[in-house]
Amino acid sequence: MSKKRVLGRGLDDLLAQHDQDLPFLDAYGPSIGDSEGLPLGIGTDPVEQLMEAIARLLQAEGYQGSELITRKAKENGVQITVLSGGDKLPLVPSDLGAPGFEEGKLADDRSEASVTIVQWGIPARRLIERLCEHWAG
Fold first, then answer.
1. Could you count the other beta carbons within 10 Å of the beta carbon of residue 76?
2. Each residue's pLDDT tens digit, 4-54
3. Rounded to 5 degrees, what are φ and ψ at 85?
4. What pLDDT was estimated at residue 74?
5. Which end of the chain is more exposed for a tag (fewer CB within 10 A), N or C?
6. Which helix (H) or strand (E) element contains residue 132?
7. Could you give the angle at which helices 122-136 and 47-60 cross, rounded to 10 degrees?
């Protein structure tokens, strides 16, 4: 007896079955692209708030020096320029192209990098934490 192969439930059924509220994901910040379709400027954070967030994180990470990182307020965000301080920076070009970043540049010898942070989020926080860890080590 030949059985006809029948497709299981459709994608909509599977999604409905597995649609659950996962509040723990909020700890990782807003999902990328939440601001799609909004007017220009809505998806970026005010420069003053970005400057304050960067300063707070640097302080929380115990970074006291100012010679290895400089911050400059720009119209669209905060441009940070970082120096390696000896060893090569622990970065690759794609680190500076993450969501929330613009104009990322990494020197060929990885001794210097610059990027404009236009939106505070996990990528910006992670970048600064990695740099502080690099300088502390």
1. 15
2. 665 566 666 655 666 555 555 555 555 444 444 334 444 556 888 899 999
3. 75, 25
4. 92
5. N
6. helix 122-136
7. 40
